[in-house]
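User: I've been trying to design a sequence by hand for this structure and keep getting stuck. Would you show me what you'd pick, starting by listing the structure so we're on the same page?

Assistant: Good idea, let's start from the same input. This is the structure you sent:
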């Protein structure tokens, strides 16, 4: 009866299920994992696959808990049905039989998800956080970085207007990454345009 959840219950030294006085097993402790949306919103995705695997295990454990509760209900119904009163006659002389309770239905085990399947609803956000790599810096494809690029472009145009563009480069761009703000040094206008084009095209793909 406990075979379906054998991998989720505590075993004794001889690898036999630890059961209570009612013959019910003891579930192992539920796995602990951090909330995946919270991690993504905070940009903490370096170990996201590990937490996704834990989340998949938690879904399985939750099913095991449902099955455990099913076993309790099943035991109660079987005990009730085994002790039904004998048929009796009512005041009208009719034979009354107490009907047994229907057996509960076992919960169906969900398929074990891969980390990719767990993260699929969040993959778009994750990819934006990872962003593009330029000169060793992984720049997130967020609005803040886009605004920073626009401000830098306006500053360059102003420098050209006053014919001081030679003093503009090299320029440091404070890029937001999933590890926080990192300085990306752009040595000249060609490098700035190359970075800007890669960023814009990559970000544009998320809105198509």
């Amino acid at each position: 009866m406990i075979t379906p959840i054998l991998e989720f219950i505590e075993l004794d030294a001889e690898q036999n299920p630890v059961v209570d006085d009612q013959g019910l097993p003891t579930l192992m402790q539920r796995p602990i994992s951090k909330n995946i949306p919270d991690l993504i919103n905070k940009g903490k995705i370096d170990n996201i696959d590990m937490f996704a695997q834990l989340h998949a295990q938690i879904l399985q454990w939750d099913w095991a808990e449902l099955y455990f509760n099913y076993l309790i209900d099943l035991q109660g119904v079987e005990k009730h049905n085994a002790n039904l009163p004998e048929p009796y006659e009512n005041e009208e002389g009719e034979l009354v039989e107490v009907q047994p309770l229907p057996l509960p239905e076992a919960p169906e085990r969900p398929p074990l998800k891969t980390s990719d399947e767990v993260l699929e609803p969040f993959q778009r956000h994750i990819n934006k956080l990872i962003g593009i790599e330029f000169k060793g810096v992984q720049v997130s494809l967020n609005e803040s970085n886009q605004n920073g690029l626009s401000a830098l472009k306006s500053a360059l145009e102003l420098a050209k207007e006053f014919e001081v563009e030679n003093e503009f480069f090299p320029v440091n761009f404070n890029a937001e990454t999933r590890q926080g703000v990192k300085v990306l040094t752009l040595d000249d206008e060609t490098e700035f345009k190359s970075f800007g084009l890669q960023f814009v095209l990559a970000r544009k793909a998320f809105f198509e």
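That's my pick for every position. To get oriented when you compare it with your attempt: The radius of gyration is 31 Å. The first strand starts at residue 88 and ends at 89.
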